Give the backbone structure.
Amino acid sequence: MNWVWFYRLASPLWFYQTTTRWLPWLGLLAFILLATGLVWGLGFAPQDAKQGNSFRIIYMHVPASFLALAGYFLMATAGAIGLIWKMKLSYMVMKAAAPIGAALTFLALFTGAVWGKPTWGSYWVWDARITSMLILLFLYFGVLALQYAFHNEEASNKASAILALIGTVNIPIIYKSVDWWYTLHQPSTIKLTSAPSMHPDMFQPLLVMILGFYCFYIVALCLFTRVEILRRERKTGWVGDLVGELNGSTEGKRQ
Amino acid sequence: MKVQFQTINQILDMGGHGFYVWSAVFVTLTVLIGLIVRPLLQHKTVLNQVSQDLAREKLRKKTAGEGN
């Protein structure tokens, strides 16, 4: 088997150069998708028969929750790859995923709270889905905190990765919480195995928002990873060359 | 597919749910923008630091050279 791609992927320089080329386009795509989905969902989708207009919060709540979970899975996988193959870039991705995941989990909880008030009459209930999402937020915080808990970078990377891996136990609990326990939270409207239980006019903008959030997530992850790369490789020749090039181009403009 | 709201007030009010919907929109946009701006600023900071380090290194080499 040819492993060249794997080693290439492990190279921070290769990652940095490739993302420099692709990020503007991906960012543009994410912006277009999010803007379209938001305007479509807020202004054009029909209102819900029972919930009225508060249901429009779904266009932020569901995509944020999806990415909060997918992001955790990605962070734990990156941690596992780092532990097994001692891949530097993998740990950097793990580190980059933690603040983004925490922000998106917070977003899922916040949009859920302002949706809960008009729908259930309460901003917060200690039901299974919401509590397990709160635990997810604390797991993200834990991974973030462990990175600063040791002087030795190797040790903090390992500790973060192990915590991230242990925390994956929480992921199926979040998914299944609406089926396993009696809860206020409605069961999932989107399933891979069957048609969505939502009218297409409401579902299509949601799909656009989910795609937009995925693109956004990749952009944010790359941006955070690039900062990690620069920080760790600042003493290497290529970062110096990069700075030289940038300074050269601004000096060129001044003349 | 048709527009659901006719006037600005209807858009803001959202049938009485305006506060909930718009606070969700506001916080979502703030978080998303923050997740882009923060790494971009940090990126700039690191590059500036490297640039300063290189300049200092250059100066140090130059003065060391003059000393000889």
Q: What stands out?
A: Residues 120 and 184 of chain A are 8 Å apart (CA to CA). The two ends of chain A are 53 Å apart (CA to CA).
